[in-house]
C-alpha cells in the first residue's frame, strides 16, 4: 500500500493552518477526496484565523468611510502610534527647552518666539468668516508632477480637528493616549512648541475616536473645545490655562452621539458655544476673557454645525443650525429672530451654511435630504424665512461647500458637484473624492480626499476639470485643510503635513 504523503495528513493541514494560514488554505484545496462543502467551511475557518492574526499581531483595522457602508482597511496599533508621536516630539525638541510652567491639570511646554512672523489670517474654523476661502496670496495652480513642495511631515494624535494659524504657529487638538491635548506647532518646521492636555477619551465605534472641534485663535488667546465638553481659553504663546468650563456640565446637557464638534465662535466680547442644554441652555455666550456666562438661550438639541456671525436682511446676527432647524439669534442676548425647519435623519446637521448675499443663505445635509437656499426678510419686530429653492442636487454630509462666482461647489454624498446658487440647477457632478474636504483659492478647489490625496480642481461651472493630484498623507482623512502664509496644512487621525502652496518663495 502506498504511504500517506505528509502534506495530505490532517495533522499537517491543522499545523499549517495555525502556523501560516495561507499555507493551510493551499493544503486544504490540494487534499484529494475532501468534499467541496468541507473545503468551503475549512476555508472560512482558516480565513477567520488569518484575520484574527492580522488584527492581533499586525494591527489590521477596518474603519467605515463617510458613507458608513464601505470599510477602509489599514494597519494601526494604538500603542505604537502614540509611541511614534512621542518619539517624534522628543526628536524635534530644542536642545535647551525651558522648565515647564505650571498650569491647571495640564502638561504644558512653554513656547519660544515663532520663527515665521505672519499677520494672523487663518484663525478660525475654515478660515475667515468660516467660508472656506483663501485669498491672502495667490496659490500655485501648476503643481509639480510629484506634488507640492513638502516642508515637513510627522505623526499626530487622533481626532478630526483642523488647524488654525497665527503668529507663526499652527494649533490643533488631538487625542494623546487617554488625554485630549491642544498642541502648538512651529509653522515653518513642525516642531511642537507646547501642549495643554486633560484626561478625556471620547470613543465612537462608527465615526471614530478623539476630539472633533477645531480651536479658534483670537487676540493672543486660543479657545479649544474637547469632544466631551471641556472648553479652555489658553494663552496662545505658552499654552497656560486662562480659564476653563465644561459646557455640558455647566448647562445640564448630555453629549450627542458623535461628540461636541462645534468650533467656538468669538464675536465682540463673547465666545459662543452650543452645549444643547435644556431649559434655555442650548446656545450659550461666555465672556471671552473671564469665562463668566453672559447669556443662555433656547432649548434645542444641538447637532454638529459650528455657529457663525453673519448679516442677513440688514441685521447682524448669529446663524445656528441645530438638530432640527436653522435660526438667527441676536448677538447681544441670544433672542430668536427667525427659524427655518431643517430636520434630517438621526438629527445630523454637520455642514456649514453659506451666506449668498444680503438676505440669502445656502444649507445642505446628507441622508437623502438635500439642499436649500433660504431667504430672510423683515416681518415686524422679527424676520421671516422662506425657501427660494430646495432639491437633492447637493447633499453635504460633514463636508461643507464653498461659493464662487454664483456657483456652489461641494461634495454630493462623496462626489464633487457644482450647482447654480440662484436656481439650484446642477451644472456637473464628477470626481469621486470620497468624504474629504475642500477649500477655494485662486479660482480653484483644493480638495483633500478621504484617502489623503491632495487634488486641484478648477472652479468652473462648465465641467469637472482636475488639474493635479498627489498623495499627501496616509489613512482615512476627514479633517479640513488649512492655508495661511502660503502654507497648506493637512492632517488626519495619524499623520500631518505642511506644503508650500504659494506662488512666491516664502522668506522666513
Question: What is shown here, in short?
Answer:
With 508 residues, this protein is mostly beta strands. It has helices at 10-19, 21-30, 36-58, 78-91, 247-250; strands at residues 60-64, 71-75, 133-134, 150-155, 164-166, 169-176, 179-186, 192-199, 216-218, 221-225, 230-235, 241-246, 265-267, 270-273, 283-287, 293-297, 308-312, 315-321, 325-329, 336-341, 354-355, 360-365, 370-379, 382-391, 402-404, 407-412, 415-420, 426-432, 437-441, 444-448, 453-458, 466-471, 482-484, 487-491, 495-500.
Describe this structure in words.
With 508 residues, the protein is mostly beta strands. The protein has 2 domains: 6-58, no CATH class; 80-500, YVTN repeat-like/Quinoprotein amine dehydrogenase (Methylamine Dehydrogenase, Chain H). Helices cover 12% and strands 38% of the residues. The chain has helices spanning 10-19, 21-30, 36-58, 78-91, 247-250, and strands at 60-64, 71-75, 133-134, 150-155, 164-166, 169-176, 179-186, 192-199, 216-218, 221-225, 230-235, 241-246, 265-267, 270-273, 283-287, 293-297, 308-312, 315-321, 325-329, 336-341, 354-355, 360-365, 370-379, 382-391, 402-404, 407-412, 415-420, 426-432, 437-441, 444-448, 453-458, 466-471, 482-484, 487-491, 495-500. α1 (10-19) packs antiparallel against α2 (21-30) and α2 (21-30) runs antiparallel to α3 (36-58).
Amino acid at each position: 500500500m502506498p504511504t500517506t504523503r505528509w502534506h495530505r495528513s490532517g495533522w499537517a493541514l491543522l499545523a499549517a493552518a495555525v502556523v501560516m494560514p495561507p499555507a493551510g488554505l493551499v493544503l486544504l484545496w490540494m487534499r484529494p477526496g475532501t468534499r467541496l462543502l468541507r473545503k468551503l467551511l475549512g476555508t472560512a475557518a482558516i480565513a477567520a484565523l488569518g484575520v484574527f492574526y492580522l488584527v492581533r499581531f499586525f494591527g489590521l483595522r477596518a474603519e467605515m468611510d463617510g458613507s458608513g457602508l464601505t470599510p477602509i482597511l489599514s494597519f494601526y496599533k494604538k500603542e505604537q502610534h502614540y509611541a511614534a508621536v512621542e518619539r517624534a516630539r522628543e526628536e524635534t525638541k530644542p536642545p535647551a527647552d525651558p522648565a515647564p510652567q505650571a498650569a491647571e491639570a495640564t502638561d504644558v511646554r512653554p513656547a519660544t518666539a515663532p520663527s515665521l512672523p505672519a499677520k494672523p489670517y487663518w484663525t478660525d474654523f475654515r478660515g475667515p468668516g468660516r467660508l472656506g476661502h483663501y485669498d491672502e496670496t495667490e496659490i500655485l495652480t501648476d503643481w509639480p508632477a510629484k506634488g507640492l513642495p513638502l516642508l515637513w511631515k510627522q505623526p499626530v494624535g487622533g481626532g478630526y480637528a483642523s488647524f488654525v494659524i497665527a503668529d507663526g504657529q499652527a494649533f490643533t487638538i488631538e487625542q494623546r493616549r487617554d488625554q485630549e491635548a491642544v498642541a502648538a506647532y512651529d509653522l515653518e518646521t513642525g516642531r511642537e512648541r507646547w501642549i495643554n492636555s486633560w484626561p478625556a477619551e471620547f470613543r465612537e465605534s462608527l465615526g471614530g475616536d478623539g476630539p472633533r472641534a477645531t480651536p479658534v485663535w483670537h487676540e493672543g488667546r486660543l479657545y479649544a473645545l474637547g469632544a466631551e465638553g471641556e472648553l479652555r481659553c489658553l494663552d496662545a504663546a505658552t499654552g497656560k490655562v486662562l480659564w476653563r468650563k465644561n459646557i455640558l456640565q455647566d448647562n445640564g446637557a448630555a453629549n450627542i452621539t458623535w461628540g461636541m464638534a462645534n468650533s467656538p465662535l468669538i464675536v465682540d466680547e463673547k465666545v459662543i458655544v452650543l452645549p444643547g442644554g435644556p431649559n434655555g441652555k442650548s446656545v450659550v455666550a461666555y465672556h471671552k476673557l473671564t469665562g463668566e456666562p453672559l447669556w443662555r438661550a433656547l432649548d434645542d438639541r444641538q447637532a454638529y454645525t459650528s455657529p457663525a456671525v453673519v448679516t442677513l436682511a440688514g441685521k447682524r446676527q448669529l446663524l445656528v443650525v441645530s438638530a432640527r432647524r436653522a435660526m438667527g439669534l441676536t448677538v447681544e442676548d441670544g433672542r430668536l429672530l427667525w427659524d427655518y425647519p431643517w430636520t434630517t435623519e438621526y438629527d445630523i446637521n454637520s455642514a456649514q451654511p453659506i451666506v449668498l448675499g444680503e438676505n440669502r443663505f445656502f444649507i445642505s445635509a446628507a441622508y437623502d435630504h438635500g439642499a436649500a437656499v433660504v431667504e430672510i426678510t423683515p416681518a415686524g419686530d422679527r424676520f421671516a424665512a422662506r425657501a427660494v429653492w430646495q432639491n437633492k442636487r447637493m447633499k453635504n454630509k460633514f463636508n461643507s461647500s464653498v461659493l464662487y462666482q454664483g456657483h456652489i461647489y461641494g461634495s454630493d454624498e462623496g462626489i464633487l458637484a457644482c450647482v447654480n446658487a440662484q436656481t439650484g440647477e446642477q451644472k456637473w457632478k464628477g470626481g469621486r473624492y470620497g468624504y474629504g474636504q475642500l477649500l477655494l483659492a485662486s479660482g480653484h478647489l483644493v480638495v483633500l480626499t478621504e484617502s489623503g490625496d491632495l487634488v486641484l480642481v478648477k472652479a468652473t461651472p462648465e465641467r469637472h476639470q482636475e488639474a493635479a493630484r498627489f498623495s499627501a498623507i496616509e489613512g482615512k482623512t476627514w479633517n479640513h485643510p488649512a492655508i495661511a502664509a502660503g502654507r497648506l496644512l493637512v492632517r488626519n487621525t495619524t499623520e500631518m503635513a505642511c506644503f508650500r502652496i504659494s506662488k512666491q518663495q516664502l522668506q522666513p
